[in-house]
Amino acid sequence: ISTSCKGRFAPLRGAYGHLDMTEKRFVVAITGSSGAVYGAKFLERCPGEKFLVVSNWGAKVLEHEMSLTI
């Protein structure tokens, strides 16, 4: 798989240059707003490789709203 950067995003491309939708990568950042529950639910449901970035306040919100500890 190679990447081709046009603009700000670099979509994953297969051997023939077509967009490869079977391999998805997601980065989710939880920073402490009350929308942290949406980020957690998204991570549970989305396919592909996932990366999570959580601030100190984001961890506190996850613990308070969802009883999750990071």
What does this structure look like?
The strands form 2 sheets. Strands 1-2 form a two-stranded antiparallel sheet. Strands 3-4 form a two-stranded parallel sheet. The chain contains 2 helices and 4 strands; from the N terminus they run E-E-E-H-E-H. With 70 residues, the protein is an alpha+beta fold. The protein is elongated and about 35 Å long. The protein has helices at residues 36-45, 56-66, and strands at residues 2-3, 12-13, 25-30, 49-54. The N and C termini lie far apart (32 Å).
The end-to-end span amounts to 32 Å
Helix content: 25-40%
Give the C-alpha Rg: 15 Å
Largest sheet: 2 strands, antiparallel
Task: Output the number of helix runs.
Answer: 2
Summed over residues and divided by their number, the pLDDT gives a mean of 76
Question: What is the H/E string?
Answer: EEEHEH
Q: Which blocks of ≥5 consecutive residues have pLDDT under 50?
A: 1-7
Q: Provide the β-strand percentage band.
A: 15-25%
- Structural class computed from helices and strand pairing: alpha+beta
Number of strands: 4
Shape field: elongated
Features:
70 residues, single chain, elongated, 30% helix, alpha+beta, two-stranded antiparallel sheet
Fold topology:
Layout: E1 2-3, E2 12-13, E3 25-30, H1 36-45, E4 49-54, H2 56-66
Parallel strand pairs: 3-4
Antiparallel strand pairs: 1-2
Question: Summed up, what is this model?
Answer:
The protein has 70 residues and is an alpha+beta fold. It is 30% helix and 23% strand. The protein is built from 2 helices and 4 strands; from the N terminus they run E-E-E-H-E-H.
